[in-house]
Amino acid sequence: MARILGGVTSSHIPAVGNAIANGLTQEPYWKRFFDGYGPAQKWLDEVKPDLAIVVYNDHGLNFFLDKVPTFALGCADVYPNEDEGWGLKPVAPFKGDAELSWHIAESLVEQEIDICMCQEMLVDHGFVNPIRALWGTHENWPIKAIPLAVNTVQHPVPTAARCLKLGRALRKAVESYPEDMKIVILGTGGLSHQLQGERAGLINVEFDLECMEKIATDPEWMTQFSNAEIMEKAGTEGIESIMWLVMRGALQDDAKIIHKHYHAPISNTGAGVLVLENQY
Amino acid sequence: MVWKKHEYEDIPGTYVFDGKHAHGAYPLNKLLFSFNSEECRSEFDEDPAAYCDKFGVTGKYKEMVVKKDFLGMLRAGANIYFMAKMCIPRGTSVQDAGAQFQGITTKEFQDKLLQKGEGLVDKLEKVGGYWNG
Description:
The complex is a heterodimer. By secondary structure, chain A is of the alpha/beta class. Chain A has one domain (3-277): LigB-like (Protocatechuate 4,5-dioxygenase, Chain B). Chain A is 34% helix and 21% strand. Chain A has 9 helices and 10 strands. Chain A has helices at 14-21, 28-35, 38-47, 98-110, 125-135, 160-175, 205-217, 227-234, 242-249, and strands at residues 3-10, 51-56, 71-74, 78-79, 94-95, 116-118, 144-150, 182-188, 256-266, 269-277. Chain A has an 8-stranded mixed beta sheet, sandwiched between helices. Chain B is mostly helical. Chain B folds into 2 domains: 7-102, Protocatechuate 4,5-dioxygenase, Chain A, CATH 1.10.700; 106-133, no CATH class. Chain B has helices spanning 19-24, 26-34, 38-46, 48-54, 59-67, 70-75, 80-87, 94-102, 106-116, 120-127. The longest helix of chain B has 11 residues, at 106-116. Chain B is globular and about 60 Å long. Chain B starts with 18 loop residues before the first helix and ends in a 6-residue tail after the last helix. Chains A and B meet through helix 8 and strand 9 of A and helix 2, helix 7, helix 8, helix 9 and helix 10 of B.
């Protein structure tokens, strides 16, 4: 049977990819941020997952505003990265696992979590940068990956409670897959940031730290907030933190904290790396 | 015919990208989305006004696109991620746009961000349980 080894959170901002591409990760501005990935990389190296399910939001590469699915699952063999408008060289395409994807799609819909199934899916920095930060950049990626896109771009976006439910359904889906596979769930994006408006530049360290603590130990805590309340505390783009709840929901309630790292600011954001391990 | 009022509209200095913005600025965002393609970016550069016409971007929207008034575009409903496809290759970063929103320089905007991280290591040590180098 497939097993979920644990979950990892990561920022996915474009600047992370640029810092990696330009060899800046040990520059003073970046050093503490990237060094904090070390224990997460070590854990991944020890547990050796076969596949990562990456919970992220598309930023206008795969989805335009003509159709905006609340939840969209990649159901393909391969997921290419492409030019997002900045003329950067795309990274190598990612291998998926179509059989597992379709199994997850079936199970989720059976559990009344209706998702959009994508047989062609371009993956942008939101998907690519956490993988690069955790595994490095490769021509042949060392793991397979499945994109699970959550709409955090065009409101209404799903509630924190809904994301937690999706995660719990995802756990059932993965754990009912007959093949022996080791899976890790990446919750990406966040933490607090606001890119637009006179309130741009908002970072709320206190809220971020509370989020990291509660997502690890008491994820229901997040569900008390409306999306308006989360944006009030964490900024409009800080709403991305709901994607961490998908990851958290997919883990056991008593998942063990392996690593907690927080850094601010990185570009416009507070950034957290959380590694949670399921106990078997 | 009325746009529903939302709780988040009371957050100061904040423009939540919802149906009202997405609907009004749909042609503008469609034009911005097209910049994923190098071919479209070149076509725009050759004749910005004609490119706006092609996408049905008219009136104040067209004026702002031709003038590359990024701040105006954001206020008029351009989505920040879609606008980044136009402004970043033209030398205006998201931080530049943030600074413009506040009427300060980018350096001042970045300094304000750096202040948010002051004393962080001490704070994390006090909280406990965090990797701290």
